[in-house]
Amino acid sequence: MRVFITGGSGWIGSAVVPELLAAGHEVHGLARSDESAARLRAAGVEPIVGGLGDREVLRASAAASDAVIHLGYNHDFGDQAGAGRTERGAIETFGDALAGTGAPLLFASGVAFVAPGQVATEEVLAPFAGPEAPRGGAEELAFGFVDRGIHPVAVRFAPTVHGAGDHGFIAELVRVAREKGVSGYVGDGAGHWPAVYRGDAARLVARALENASAATIVHAVGEQGVRTRDIAEAIGAGLGLPVASIDPDDVGEHFGWIGRIFALDLQASNELTRRRFDWEPTGPTLLEDLAAGSYFARAAA
Known about the structure:
Elements: E1 2-6, H1 13-22, E2 26-31, H2 34-42, E3 46-49, H3 55-63, E4 67-70, H4 80-98, E5 104-110, E6 119-120, H5 138-143, E7 151-157, E8 160-162, H6 169-180, E9 183-186, E10 192-197, H7 198-211, E11 216-220, E12 223-227, H8 228-239, E13 243-246, H9 251-255, H10 259-262, E14 267-268, H11 271-277, H12 286-292, H13 294-300
Parallel strand pairs: 1-2, 1-4, 2-3, 4-5, 5-7, 6-14, 7-11, 8-10, 9-13
Antiparallel strand pairs: 10-12
Protein backbone atom coordinates (compact mmCIF):
# COMPACT_ATOMS: atom_id res chain seq x y z
CA MET A 1 0.00 0.00 0.00
CA ARG A 2 0.91 3.62 -0.41
CA VAL A 3 0.63 5.02 3.12
CA PHE A 4 0.52 8.69 4.12
CA ILE A 5 1.69 9.28 7.69
CA THR A 6 1.67 12.38 9.86
CA GLY A 7 4.05 12.53 12.81
CA GLY A 8 6.37 10.15 11.00
CA SER A 9 9.49 11.84 12.38
CA GLY A 10 8.10 12.02 15.93
CA TRP A 11 8.60 9.79 18.93
CA ILE A 12 6.05 7.11 18.00
CA GLY A 13 5.93 7.67 14.25
CA SER A 14 9.68 7.21 13.79
CA ALA A 15 9.28 3.71 15.26
CA VAL A 16 6.21 2.95 13.14
CA VAL A 17 7.91 3.87 9.85
CA PRO A 18 10.42 0.96 9.85
CA GLU A 19 7.57 -1.46 10.59
CA LEU A 20 5.64 -0.16 7.57
CA LEU A 21 8.65 -0.31 5.28
CA ALA A 22 9.50 -3.82 6.44
CA ALA A 23 5.96 -4.87 5.53
CA GLY A 24 6.53 -3.61 1.99
CA HIS A 25 4.51 -0.40 2.11
CA GLU A 26 5.46 2.77 0.26
CA VAL A 27 5.46 5.54 2.84
CA HIS A 28 4.99 9.29 2.35
CA GLY A 29 5.17 11.55 5.38
CA LEU A 30 4.14 15.06 6.36
CA ALA A 31 7.16 17.26 7.15
CA ARG A 32 6.66 20.64 8.79
CA SER A 33 10.34 21.62 8.66
CA ASP A 34 13.52 20.95 6.71
CA GLU A 35 14.84 19.01 9.68
CA SER A 36 11.76 16.80 9.76
CA ALA A 37 11.98 16.24 6.00
CA ALA A 38 15.62 15.20 6.32
CA ARG A 39 14.80 12.70 9.06
CA LEU A 40 11.99 11.20 7.01
CA ARG A 41 14.13 10.97 3.88
CA ALA A 42 16.92 9.28 5.84
CA ALA A 43 14.39 6.73 7.12
CA GLY A 44 13.22 5.87 3.61
CA VAL A 45 10.10 8.04 3.58
CA GLU A 46 9.17 10.51 0.83
CA PRO A 47 8.56 13.83 2.63
CA ILE A 48 5.61 16.07 1.82
CA VAL A 49 6.08 19.62 3.08
CA GLY A 50 3.28 20.99 5.24
CA GLY A 51 1.74 21.19 8.68
CA LEU A 52 -1.39 19.85 10.33
CA GLY A 53 -3.20 23.08 9.51
CA ASP A 54 -2.45 22.85 5.77
CA ARG A 55 -5.71 21.26 4.73
CA GLU A 56 -5.03 21.21 1.00
CA VAL A 57 -1.76 19.37 1.57
CA LEU A 58 -3.50 16.86 3.85
CA ARG A 59 -6.37 16.38 1.41
CA ALA A 60 -4.17 15.83 -1.64
CA SER A 61 -1.79 13.51 0.20
CA ALA A 62 -4.61 11.39 1.61
CA ALA A 63 -6.43 11.22 -1.73
CA ALA A 64 -3.26 9.92 -3.40
CA SER A 65 -2.81 7.16 -0.80
CA ASP A 66 -4.30 3.77 0.00
CA ALA A 67 -4.24 4.42 3.74
CA VAL A 68 -3.62 7.23 6.23
CA ILE A 69 -1.90 6.90 9.59
CA HIS A 70 -2.37 10.12 11.53
CA LEU A 71 0.03 10.29 14.47
CA GLY A 72 0.87 14.00 14.43
CA TYR A 73 -0.55 16.27 17.12
CA ASN A 74 0.05 19.75 18.47
CA HIS A 75 0.95 19.03 22.11
CA ASP A 76 0.38 22.57 23.33
CA PHE A 77 -0.75 22.30 26.95
CA GLY A 78 -1.14 26.08 27.03
CA ASP A 79 -3.82 25.98 24.32
CA GLN A 80 -5.49 22.60 24.43
CA ALA A 81 -8.68 23.95 22.86
CA GLY A 82 -6.68 25.23 19.89
CA ALA A 83 -4.89 21.89 19.59
CA GLY A 84 -8.28 20.17 19.59
CA ARG A 85 -9.56 22.40 16.79
CA THR A 86 -6.49 21.66 14.69
CA GLU A 87 -6.90 17.93 15.27
CA ARG A 88 -10.57 18.01 14.32
CA GLY A 89 -9.77 19.95 11.16
CA ALA A 90 -7.23 17.31 10.13
CA ILE A 91 -9.67 14.46 10.74
CA GLU A 92 -12.41 16.28 8.81
CA THR A 93 -10.01 16.78 5.92
CA PHE A 94 -9.03 13.12 5.82
CA GLY A 95 -12.71 12.19 5.90
CA ASP A 96 -13.42 14.35 2.86
CA ALA A 97 -10.41 12.99 0.96
CA LEU A 98 -11.10 9.31 1.67
CA ALA A 99 -14.88 9.28 1.30
CA GLY A 100 -16.06 6.32 -0.74
CA THR A 101 -12.64 4.67 -0.97
CA GLY A 102 -12.90 2.10 1.80
CA ALA A 103 -9.40 3.19 2.85
CA PRO A 104 -8.12 2.71 6.41
CA LEU A 105 -7.79 5.87 8.50
CA LEU A 106 -5.74 5.12 11.61
CA PHE A 107 -5.44 7.99 14.03
CA ALA A 108 -3.79 8.47 17.40
CA SER A 109 -6.00 8.74 20.43
CA GLY A 110 -5.37 8.04 24.10
CA VAL A 111 -6.65 5.96 26.99
CA ALA A 112 -6.26 8.86 29.44
CA PHE A 113 -9.53 10.43 30.59
CA VAL A 114 -11.66 7.78 28.84
CA ALA A 115 -12.68 6.21 32.15
CA PRO A 116 -10.79 7.77 35.10
CA GLY A 117 -11.06 5.64 38.22
CA GLN A 118 -12.09 2.61 36.19
CA VAL A 119 -10.37 0.22 33.81
CA ALA A 120 -10.93 1.51 30.29
CA THR A 121 -11.53 -1.21 27.70
CA GLU A 122 -11.69 -1.20 23.92
CA GLU A 123 -15.47 -1.39 24.18
CA VAL A 124 -15.78 1.90 26.11
CA LEU A 125 -16.42 4.86 23.80
CA ALA A 126 -14.58 8.09 24.49
CA PRO A 127 -16.96 10.61 26.11
CA PHE A 128 -15.62 13.54 24.07
CA ALA A 129 -17.33 15.47 21.28
CA GLY A 130 -16.80 18.83 19.65
CA PRO A 131 -13.80 20.75 18.34
CA GLU A 132 -12.52 21.94 21.72
CA ALA A 133 -12.85 18.56 23.44
CA PRO A 134 -9.70 16.49 24.09
CA ARG A 135 -8.17 15.68 20.68
CA GLY A 136 -11.06 17.54 19.07
CA GLY A 137 -13.50 14.73 19.74
CA ALA A 138 -11.70 12.80 17.01
CA GLU A 139 -13.07 9.36 17.86
CA GLU A 140 -16.70 10.46 17.78
CA LEU A 141 -16.12 12.33 14.52
CA ALA A 142 -14.11 9.63 12.74
CA PHE A 143 -16.40 6.77 13.67
CA GLY A 144 -19.17 8.69 11.93
CA PHE A 145 -17.22 8.20 8.68
CA VAL A 146 -18.15 4.51 8.39
CA ASP A 147 -21.30 5.36 6.43
CA ARG A 148 -19.15 7.40 4.05
CA GLY A 149 -17.13 4.36 3.04
CA ILE A 150 -14.12 4.98 5.25
CA HIS A 151 -12.38 2.54 7.58
CA PRO A 152 -11.60 4.49 10.82
CA VAL A 153 -9.39 2.93 13.50
CA ALA A 154 -8.64 4.71 16.79
CA VAL A 155 -5.27 3.74 18.22
CA ARG A 156 -5.41 4.69 21.89
CA PHE A 157 -1.89 5.01 23.24
CA ALA A 158 -1.00 4.75 26.90
CA PRO A 159 -0.09 8.16 28.37
CA THR A 160 3.47 6.89 28.72
CA VAL A 161 5.08 5.44 25.58
CA HIS A 162 8.51 4.77 27.03
CA GLY A 163 11.98 3.94 25.85
CA ALA A 164 15.43 5.50 25.45
CA GLY A 165 14.96 8.98 23.99
CA ASP A 166 11.47 9.55 25.43
CA HIS A 167 10.82 13.24 26.12
CA GLY A 168 7.22 12.90 27.29
CA PHE A 169 5.48 12.62 30.66
CA ILE A 170 8.08 10.47 32.42
CA ALA A 171 10.88 12.76 31.30
CA GLU A 172 8.89 15.69 32.70
CA LEU A 173 8.47 13.92 36.05
CA VAL A 174 12.23 13.36 36.11
CA ARG A 175 12.80 17.05 35.40
CA VAL A 176 10.44 18.10 38.19
CA ALA A 177 12.10 15.74 40.67
CA ARG A 178 15.53 17.11 39.82
CA GLU A 179 14.29 20.70 40.15
CA LYS A 180 12.49 20.12 43.46
CA GLY A 181 15.10 17.83 44.98
CA VAL A 182 12.49 15.19 45.74
CA SER A 183 10.66 12.59 43.69
CA GLY A 184 7.02 13.04 44.54
CA TYR A 185 3.83 11.03 44.24
CA VAL A 186 0.33 12.30 44.95
CA GLY A 187 -1.38 11.38 48.22
CA ASP A 188 -0.89 7.72 49.02
CA GLY A 189 0.53 7.00 45.56
CA ALA A 190 -2.12 4.38 44.84
CA GLY A 191 -3.03 5.87 41.46
CA HIS A 192 -1.94 4.21 38.24
CA TRP A 193 -0.54 5.08 34.82
CA PRO A 194 -0.83 2.73 31.84
CA ALA A 195 2.39 2.35 29.87
CA VAL A 196 3.68 0.76 26.68
CA TYR A 197 7.14 0.26 25.26
CA ARG A 198 7.66 2.26 22.07
CA GLY A 199 8.67 -0.71 19.93
CA ASP A 200 5.64 -2.72 21.04
CA ALA A 201 3.35 0.19 20.16
CA ALA A 202 4.91 0.50 16.72
CA ARG A 203 4.40 -3.18 15.93
CA LEU A 204 0.76 -2.87 16.93
CA VAL A 205 0.13 0.09 14.63
CA ALA A 206 1.49 -1.86 11.66
CA ARG A 207 -0.69 -4.84 12.51
CA ALA A 208 -3.75 -2.67 12.95
CA LEU A 209 -3.24 -1.13 9.52
CA GLU A 210 -3.66 -4.48 7.82
CA ASN A 211 -6.02 -6.33 10.14
CA ALA A 212 -8.47 -4.01 11.91
CA SER A 213 -12.13 -3.80 10.97
CA ALA A 214 -13.93 -0.47 10.61
CA ALA A 215 -14.68 1.58 13.75
CA THR A 216 -12.17 -0.44 15.78
CA ILE A 217 -10.60 0.79 19.02
CA VAL A 218 -7.06 -0.46 19.57
CA HIS A 219 -5.34 -0.16 22.93
CA ALA A 220 -1.59 0.37 22.58
CA VAL A 221 -1.10 -0.52 26.23
CA GLY A 222 1.56 -2.84 27.54
CA GLU A 223 0.83 -2.46 31.25
CA GLN A 224 -2.70 -1.84 32.53
CA GLY A 225 -1.50 0.54 35.20
CA VAL A 226 1.81 1.12 36.95
CA ARG A 227 1.38 2.43 40.49
CA THR A 228 2.39 6.08 40.68
CA ARG A 229 4.28 5.58 43.94
CA ASP A 230 6.36 2.90 42.22
CA ILE A 231 7.13 5.35 39.40
CA ALA A 232 8.21 8.00 41.92
CA GLU A 233 10.40 5.51 43.77
CA ALA A 234 12.09 4.43 40.52
CA ILE A 235 12.78 8.07 39.64
CA GLY A 236 14.08 8.74 43.14
CA ALA A 237 16.41 5.75 42.91
CA GLY A 238 17.66 6.84 39.51
CA LEU A 239 18.40 10.38 40.63
CA GLY A 240 19.55 9.54 44.16
CA LEU A 241 16.77 11.68 45.63
CA PRO A 242 14.33 11.15 48.50
CA VAL A 243 10.77 10.10 47.69
CA ALA A 244 7.81 11.84 49.31
CA SER A 245 4.05 12.16 49.22
CA ILE A 246 2.73 15.44 47.84
CA ASP A 247 -0.53 16.68 49.33
CA PRO A 248 -3.28 16.73 46.66
CA ASP A 249 -3.83 20.42 47.41
CA ASP A 250 -0.21 21.15 46.50
CA VAL A 251 -0.06 19.16 43.26
CA GLY A 252 -0.19 22.16 40.93
CA GLU A 253 2.52 24.07 42.81
CA HIS A 254 4.85 21.07 43.02
CA PHE A 255 4.40 19.36 39.65
CA GLY A 256 3.13 22.17 37.41
CA TRP A 257 0.97 21.24 34.42
CA ILE A 258 1.70 17.53 34.69
CA GLY A 259 0.36 17.33 38.24
CA ARG A 260 -3.32 17.11 37.31
CA ILE A 261 -2.55 14.12 35.09
CA PHE A 262 -0.23 12.38 37.53
CA ALA A 263 -2.91 12.75 40.23
CA LEU A 264 -5.43 10.66 38.29
CA ASP A 265 -6.00 6.93 38.62
CA LEU A 266 -5.77 5.75 35.01
CA GLN A 267 -5.97 2.11 34.03
CA ALA A 268 -6.61 0.52 30.64
CA SER A 269 -6.98 -3.07 29.51
CA ASN A 270 -5.30 -4.52 26.41
CA GLU A 271 -7.08 -7.90 26.50
CA LEU A 272 -9.19 -7.44 23.38
CA THR A 273 -6.34 -5.88 21.44
CA ARG A 274 -3.98 -8.72 22.25
CA ARG A 275 -6.55 -11.28 21.17
CA ARG A 276 -7.70 -9.51 18.00
CA PHE A 277 -4.22 -8.81 16.66
CA ASP A 278 -2.23 -11.70 18.13
CA TRP A 279 -0.09 -9.05 19.75
CA GLU A 280 1.99 -9.56 22.87
CA PRO A 281 4.14 -6.79 24.37
CA THR A 282 7.71 -8.05 24.58
CA GLY A 283 9.70 -4.92 25.44
CA PRO A 284 10.83 -3.79 28.88
CA THR A 285 8.30 -2.60 31.42
CA LEU A 286 8.25 1.05 32.47
CA LEU A 287 10.06 0.31 35.73
CA GLU A 288 12.68 -1.74 33.86
CA ASP A 289 13.20 1.16 31.47
CA LEU A 290 13.62 3.55 34.38
CA ALA A 291 16.11 1.20 36.00
CA ALA A 292 18.13 1.13 32.76
CA GLY A 293 19.04 4.76 33.39
CA SER A 294 18.50 6.56 30.07
CA TYR A 295 15.95 8.97 31.53
CA PHE A 296 18.42 10.17 34.13
CA ALA A 297 21.44 10.44 31.83
CA ARG A 298 19.50 12.74 29.53
CA ALA A 299 18.08 14.83 32.40
CA ALA A 300 21.57 15.37 33.76
CA ALA A 301 22.98 16.58 30.43
